[in-house]
């Protein structure tokens, strides 16, 4: 298959599989399942409304692990999905209706709209037509096929079997996907095969059953890191605090957690399950908890609460996983750069981290809720001071620094350790 290229090289790539209203739709389920479970590709399925009448989207959700897109919403999925880095579109099965609409620039279904955007972005598009011989032989259909071919769209099938036109076999579609991926250099990005767990956003500690203590962390920095790692080919799991104001994109396994305990449990269970190579703890996890009151504390009554320190998640993880590459964030308030570096270095040592990203949240445009940040990155050797930058740019610098620490020249991922 694929001239010696193995499907495992597609691990963590992001493909969009469009399915349309043909009886061959069942084959689409098998393709999605193979891509997602065997090749570990992140697949988002887009279904035409006709396709969704034929097969419940739930079956494709089972096959891909993601909720399929049938109707577009105000979130403009046709733009968002590609912004998030989905890089190849496969239409399997492709009806004549969708082929002809695409060739004529019509975009009146979720599938045709996705295809129009993919063409505009010059992304690789693979189509596997499913149609009766007579329907496919229609000169207008052939004209559309030729037009799409001239625009770079690849076709596989239909194949002839006992005088009948049949949609291409799943194996043939996989083969053309591998060939295309190889040609378009979709294989092996810098962080292909590296897995990340990132915590993001705030946690909540309840005083009684309705009131809680939290902070204004938005989850933006953690999400920017998750997206950047994903763009560089990593497999990313995000454990995200419920108070976050951001929504994780498809392609990132996201687990929502509310309290510190929930975030700790979620992170530990994901790490136990997957043994990620890199862990970045960005979440503004509460350092304290309360002895919670039952029900609602009556108003107008003066009460005292006692704050009890909580164990540090990074230290729990480090205890269990001594060799995982771990990055921690440290937020301080109104301190000098020298003091910030000193505290970051202390944290590096105390929590046995490999890198600490520190910031002073008292500074304007730094820290919680903002789109920018101003950080100092510290590890055993480097101290990198970054002026005020968008969180997306800071994320790129941090992920690049982490990638430099990971020796990808060997097949096995080797983390270059330099922990104090
Ligand atoms: C039983 C049945 C089978 C069909 N099979 C096909 C097919 O294999 N290929 C095709 O191009 N159209 C087929 N059609 C027609 C499409 O479902 C129809 O053109 C529809 O509008 C396609 O919408 P879509 O391209 O948005 O999914 C079939 C229709 C029915 C009722």
Give structural notes.
Helices cover 35% and strands 22% of the residues. The protein is an alpha/beta fold and 420 residues long. It has 2 domains: 2-183, Flavin prenyltransferase-like (Rossmann fold, 3-Layer(aba) Sandwich), CATH 3.40.50; 195-415, Rossmann fold. β6 (159-161) and β7 (164-166) form a beta hairpin. α1 packs parallel to α3, α5 crosses α8 and α10 (220-231) crosses α14 (391-404). The chain is elongated and about 80 Å long. The model is unreliable at 408-420 (pLDDT under 50).
State the end-to-end CA separation: 47 Å
Strand order of the largest sheet: 12-11-8-13-16-17-19-20
Which shape, going by the Cα principal axes?
A: elongated
Percent of residues in beta strands? Answer: 15-25%
Q: pLDDT below 50 for ≥5 consecutive residues: which ranges? A: 408-420
Q: Count the domains.
A: 2
State the share of residues found in helices, binned by percent: 25-40%
Mean pLDDT: 89
CATH topology of the largest domain: Rossmann fold
Bound molecules: flavin mononucleotide
Could you tell me the number of beta strands? 23
Radius of gyration, in Å, reads: 25 Å
């Amino acid at each position: 298959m694929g001239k010696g290229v193995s499907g495992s090289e597609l691990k963590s790539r992001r493909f969009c599989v469009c399915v349309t209203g043909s009886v061959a739709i069942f084959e689409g389920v098998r393709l999605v399942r193979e891509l997602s479970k065997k090749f570990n590709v992140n697949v988002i399925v887009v279904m035409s409304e006709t396709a969704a009448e034929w097969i419940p989207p739930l079956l494709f959700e089972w096959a891909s692990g993601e909720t399929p897109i049938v109707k577009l919403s105000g979130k403009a999925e046709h733009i968002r999905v590609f912004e998030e880095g989905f890089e190849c579109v496969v239409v399997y099965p492709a009806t004549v209706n969708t082929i002809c609409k695409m060739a004529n620039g019509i975009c009146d279904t979720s599938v045709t709209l996705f295809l129009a955007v993919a063409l505009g972005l010059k992304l690789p598009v693979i189509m596997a037509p499913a149609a009766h011989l007579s329907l496919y032989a229609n000169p207008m259909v052939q004209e559309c096929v030729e037009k799409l071919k001239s625009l770079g769209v690849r076709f596989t099938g239909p194949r002839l079997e006992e005088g009948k036109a049949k949609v291409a076999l799943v194996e043939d579609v996989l083969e053309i996907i591998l060939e295309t991926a190889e040609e378009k250099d979709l294989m092996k990005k810098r962080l292909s095969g590296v897995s990340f767990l990132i915590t993001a956003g705030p946690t909540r500690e309840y005083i009684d059953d309705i009131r809680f203590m939290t902070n204004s962390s938005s989850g933006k920095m953690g999400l920017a890191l998750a997206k950047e790692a994903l763009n560089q080919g990593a497999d990313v799991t995000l454990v995200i605090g419920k108070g976050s104001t951001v929504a994780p994109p498809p392609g990132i396994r996201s687990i929502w957690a509310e309290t510190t305990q929930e975030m700790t449990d979620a992170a530990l269970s994901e790490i136990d399950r997957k043994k990620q190579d890199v862990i970045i703890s960005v979440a503004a996890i509460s350092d304290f908890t309360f002895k919670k009151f039952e029900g609602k504390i009556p108003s107008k009554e003066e009460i005292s609460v006692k704050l009890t320190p909580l164990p540090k998640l990074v230290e729990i993880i480090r205890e269990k996983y001594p060799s995982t590459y771990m990055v921690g964030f440290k937020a301080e308030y109104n301190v000098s750069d020298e003091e910030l570096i000193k505290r970051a270095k202390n944290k590096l040592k105390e929590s046995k981290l490999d890198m600490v990203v520190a910031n002073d949240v008292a500074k304007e445009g730094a820290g919680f809720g903002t789109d920018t940040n101003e950080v100092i990155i510290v590890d055993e050797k480097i101290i990198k001071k970054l002026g005020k930058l968008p969180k997306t740019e800071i994320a790129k610098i941090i992920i690049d620094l982490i990638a430099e620490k990971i020796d990808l020249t060997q097949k096995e991922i080797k983390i270059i350790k330099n922990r104090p």
